[in-house]
Amino acid sequence: MDTRKPVAAFKSASQVRALAAERGLTPDDEIIIYCFKGARAANTYVAMKLAGFDKLRIYLGSWNEWSRDERLPIETGLPKGAVRLLPLVV
Q1: Which residue has better confidence, 2 or 27?
Q2: Greatest alpha-carbon span in the chain
Q3: Phi-psi region of 18 (alpha: psi -120 to 50; beta: other; left: phi over 0)
């Protein structure tokens, strides 16, 4: 989302493709989007769809659902497309 505007709006298609490329993601990749409960993932889905990514799925239950089932595997480390946070400078 572009939050520099008075009302937050989707970034342009070229900006979304550039952000995805920085994270090693291309429009040809199969991408499953998730967050904690699925709501924020929906914004990412729409932005990426508008930017030409067609192999998208959203895991609506997201982490909240997956993490409650002890039978399911949990991978450690950052996912392929994860954003690495920079240290907070005060």
Answers
A1: 27
A2: 45
A3: alpha
Q: Locate tokens 């505007």: which residue?
A: 5
For 63: left if phi > 0, alpha if psi spans -120 to 50, otherwise beta; the answer is: alpha
Within a 13 Å sphere around the CA of 85, how many CA atoms are in the beta-carbon half? Answer: 3
- Are 10 and 47 in contact, with CB atoms under 8 Å apart? yes
Is 74 a residue of the active site? no
The Cα 25–Cα 22 span in angstroms is 7
Place of tokens 């895991």: 59
Active-site residue identified among 35, 56, 58, 60: 35
pLDDT band with cut points at 50, 70 and 90 for residue 90: low
Question: Distance of alpha carbon 72 from its chain centroid, rounded?
Answer: 21
